[in-house]
Structure formats: structure tokens, C-alpha cells
Specification:
492 residues, 2 domains, 13-stranded mixed sheet, elongated, binds zinc ion, zinc, metalloexopeptidase activity, EC 3.4.-.-, metal ion binding
């Protein structure tokens, strides 16, 4: 008895000593990733959303609970191997609580509210005469000052056609011409009306708006043209207020602090749903990779994980992080991987990058093609958290399995839940991510230096210009990018 207990004790000592010095290899990280654990995390995130009104959006209790979930691992459970900090900041939280348009015959019509819609007076809203305005489908309707020549909208609700130019521009001119509100009608019939954003920058500059179906407006316009005086009511109850939110950053104690390999995913969802593919998938992948790397030693480069806040509000958390890095701190980040939506139910395997990505693309590509997947390539389009890293010239790649049909028809909807996952593709992508960080944790061969001198990548204006150009190209190509991701909502 005694002998066997001793034997057991020394065996335990031996194995824990061996573990303490167990060197990290890409193969070990890959082997540690498994479907059951990924499912466990996504199940937990799904439950967090369910328990908090169906969302994990920034500014809501569901987001706070998501932060706590990550901290429970990074800080509480892995505190011996990981250094973790929370980076707080504030941003405008926006939510339309109620929107209503009542037509000339007292009928309530289908209506959509854009993001950052200002409130009307309450509880009655605005009741006023309707004023129709000219349509210009080439340059956009009522977006140029000249299009408003001779129009007096004082005290009116103005009917304007949607499309081509930014909704906010239409509202700015309508306000200048004295309008109380705008009834925007969609370019195409039906109630499939996408939600544009008026953008947080315009808070305080706009008048309230409701977006109604084309056919409803067509009826009203016909009656106005026939000389009828029609009035309608627009009611918007909305909040826009600064709320505190938090990035979570956690890095291995192991590794050279001057040579950091970073992985990022956004921790928030949209208000409309639990965000399990977008981006519970990236969030859980990072948690599982962290749970693996923290078991090992003997890797020369530090591994850092970032869970970004308020991505869906316009990449706010990741920009907050990158813009607060000193040049010296930015220099230390040798590579950034972005994992945003890596488990779409009908996945494509799209690697996005820019010219400074070096070996990063092939690290992911080689792993996925070896597994028999066909890989697609895309240029960065500024719609996810890589943008701030690209701006700093840090070598960066992203992996993405597609949003909207045919890849993920629950994108940004309530049905982006635990059933909205392709597990086979997800496990593979997480293993590819683990493999890639495992390689770079040992060697930076093939990784270029941060681009600090290339003029077309310096400065936010230049990068934004580049992103706009990419977005315009995507739009011309008629791609799904219109229903965009990250900077998720179109301004048009
Ligand atoms: Zn996302």
C-alpha cells in the first residue's frame, strides 16, 4: 500500500514537472482544439444572450456578462500563466425604442428606423403636412443643396426617396429648409428594408426620420400630385447616450514582450441577436487557443489575445486600442490575426490581407488547403477590427467564412444562435488559427517589419480613403458587401 502510494505520488510529481516545461509546438496546440470545448463556450455565450434580452451588444448587460465570462478564464483560472487587463472607454449607445408612422387615413404603416435616429417630441410625435420632393436616382435624391432650390419645407414632413447618397445628408438639408421630420421611402417595393446608419458623428445635427415601403409612398405621392393636402404622423422614441464599455486584453507571461503575436476577435453582438457566429466564433476560438498555449513553455514570442468591444458600433474598441498604442508599443506587435465570423453555417474560407501580410496568408492557407478546403482571397475592406492594425502598418491577416446568403442567412439576426454554426468548418478554422500562432510563437521568418514609411498606409485619412475605395469597388461589383460587416450598416 505504502509503496504504491509513493509510486503514485512520484508519478504525479514527475508528470506535473514535465508539464511545467512542456514546450509549445503548433502540433500540440492543434491537438488541444476540440469541438466539445468550443461548443461549451458558444453554449455559454448563447445563454448569456438569452438571459439578457437576446443580445450581447455593447452598452447592454449581455456585453458586461460576456466580459465577465472572458475574465473568469483569462484572469481567474489562468492568472498564473496570463497577464490580463481591461481597457475601459465610453461610446454613444443608440437604440430606437419605438417608431411609428401613421398615414393620412389614420393607418399605421410599416416603418424602419435607421441607427442614430433622433427622437421626436413625445408622446405625440410630429403631425404635419406631407411635402413631396423631386427624385434623382443618378446622384441621389435631395443630397445636394441645388436640389433644394426653391423648396420651403417649413413645418412639414418631407417625403424623400432613398438611395445613392447618404441618408444623413438628406436630413441635414431637410432640416436647413425648416422640415420637422422626413419620411424616407425605399427604392424597391416590399418590407425588406435594410437599416442604414446616420452615423454617430451626426448626433445633434439631424431631424427624425422613418423609412417606409416604396408602394406606400407611391400612393401618397399620387394623391399629393392630384392636389390633396395630406398629413401624417412620425413618432420616434430613441436613446443616444455615452455608455462605458471594455476591451479585454490578455497575454502570456511567457515570451519576449518586444515580440508579440496578437490574435483578436470582437466580443459584442448586434442588438438584434446573440451573435454566436458573429463573433462568438472568434471569441471562443481565442479562449480555446489561450487555454492551450497557457499549458506550455519554451516559446520565444509573447502571445496576446484581444477581445474587442463595440465592433458593431463601428470598430470602436479595436480603434481605441490601436490609437492608444505608442509607436514603440506598436513596433512590438509583430503580427495581428483577426478572427471575425469563422463558423458560418455554409462557410467559405476567405483569407483577407493587405500587401504587408507576409507569411501570414500562407500559414492559414496551407493548413486549410491541406484539409481539402478551397481558399478564397480578399483585400481588406475596413469592415472588421483589423482596420486599426492595418493603419499602423502591422502585418495582419483575417479569416472569414461569409455573412449573409448563401453563407450565413442569420447574419445580424436573432437566429445567429447556437444552431447557426458549421462545427466541422469551425473546428478546422480554430485549428488553423492555433497552428499559425504556434508557428509565429517560435519564428518570425517571413514576417515583414511594420510599415512605418509607406506613404499610402500612413494616417487615418489615407486608410479611410482606401477603405472607401474598396467599399465602392465592392458596391460596383454588386457584391454582398453592401450589407456590410463590422462597420455594418450602410449610410445610404
Ligand atoms: Zn463581426
Amino acid at each position: 500500500m505504502r509503496f504504491s502510494r509513493l509510486a503514485a505520488t512520484s508519478a504525479a510529481l514527475f508528470s506535473s514537472a514535465a508539464l511545467a516545461n512542456d514546450p509549445l509546438t503548433p502540433a500540440k496546440l492543434v491537438a488541444d482544439i476540440n469541438e466539445v470545448e468550443l461548443q461549451r463556450v458558444l453554449w455559454a455565450l448563447n445563454k448569456i444572450a438569452k438571459d439578457n434580452g437576446g443580445t450581447r451588444a455593447f452598452g447592454t448587460p449581455g456585453y458586461k456578462a460576456s466580459v465577465d465570462y472572458v475574465l473568469e478564464r483569462a484572469q481567474t483560472r489562468f492568472g498564473r500563466e496570463m497577464d490580463t487587463f481591461v481597457q475601459p472607454f465610453t461610446f454613444v449607445y443608440d437604440e430606437t425604442l419605438e417608431i411609428k408612422v401613421t398615414g393620412p387615413d389614420g393607418e399605421d404603416v410599416f416603418v424602419v428606423s435607421p441607427q442614430y435616429n433622433p427622437a421626436t417630441p413625445l408622446p405625440g410625435g410630429i403631425t404635419a403636412s406631407l411635402l413631396n420632393t423631386p427624385v434623382d436616382d443618378t446622384t441621389g435624391s435631395m443630397c445636394l443643396e441645388s436640389q433644394w432650390d426653391g423648396i420651403d419645407a417649413t413645418g412639414k414632413l418631407v417625403l424623400i426617396k432613398r438611395g445613392v447618397c447618404a441618408v444623413a445628408d438628406k436630413l441635414i438639408f431637410a432640416k436647413a429648409k425648416g422640415a420637422l421630420g422626413v419620411i424616407l421611402y425605399n427604392q424597391t417595393p416590399g418590407t425588406e428594408i435594410t437599416t442604414p446608419t446616420l452615423s454617430a458623428d451626426n448626433i445633434g445635427k439631424l431631424i427624425p426620420v422613418g423609412i417606409i415601403p416604396l408602394e406606400v409612398a407611391t400612393g401618397w405621392i399620387g394623391r399629393l400630385a392630384a392636389g390633396e393636402d395630406l398629413s401624417a404622423t412620425l413618432l420616434v422614441d430613441a436613446i443616444a447616450e455615452e455608455r462605458e464599455t471594455w476591451n479585454v486584453i490578455s497575454e502570456t507571461k511567457e515570451g519576449d514582450p518586444n515580440k508579440v503575436i496578437m490574435l483578436g476577435a470582437h466580443l459584442d453582438s448586434v442588438l438584434e441577436g446573440p451573435g454566436i457566429n458573429d463573433d462568438g466564433s472568434g471569441t471562443a476560438a481565442l479562449l480555446e487557443i489561450m487555454g492551450s498555449v497557457k499549458k506550455y513553455k519554451g516559446f520565444p514570442h509573447k502571445i496576446r489575445f484581444g477581445w474587442w468591444a463595440a465592433e458593431e458600433a463601428g470598430l470602436v474598441g479595436s480603434y481605441h486600442y490601436t490609437q492608444n498604442l505608442t509607436p514603440a508599443e506598436a513596433d512590438k506587435i509583430k503580427f495581428y490575426f483577426n478572427y471575425d465570423m469563422i463558423a458560418s453555417p455554409n462557410p467559405k474560407y476567405e483569407i483577407s490581407s493587405y500587401e504587408n501580410s507576409g507569411i501570414g496568408v500562407s500559414l492559414l492557407e496551407d493548413y486549410l488547403t491541406a484539409a481539402g478546403k478551397e481558399v478564397e482571397y480578399a483585400e481588406f475592406d475596413g469592415r472588421s477590427d483589423y482596420a486599426g492594425f492595418v493603419e499602423l502598418g502591422i502585418p495582419t491577416v483575417g479569416l472569414f467564412t461569409g455573412d449573409g446568403a448563401p453563407w450565413d442567412s442569420c447574419y445580424h439576426k436573432a437566429c445567429d444562435d447556437i444552431d447557426n454554426i458549421n462545427w466541422e468548418g469551425y473546428v478546422l478554422n480554430t485549428k488553423a488559427a492555433a497552428n499559425a500562432v504556434g508557428i509565429l510563437a517560435h519564428s518570425l521568418e517571413g514576417v515583414p517589419d511594420r510599415l512605418v514609411t509607406t506613404p499610402n498606409l500612413r494616417g487615418r485619412d489615407k486608410i479611410n480613403y482606401q477603405f472607401k475605395r474598396w467599399a465602392a469597388l465592392a458596391q460596383e461589383a454588386g457584391s454582398h458587401s453592401l450589407c456590410s460587416h463590422g462597420k455594418k450598416k450602410s449610410t445610404v
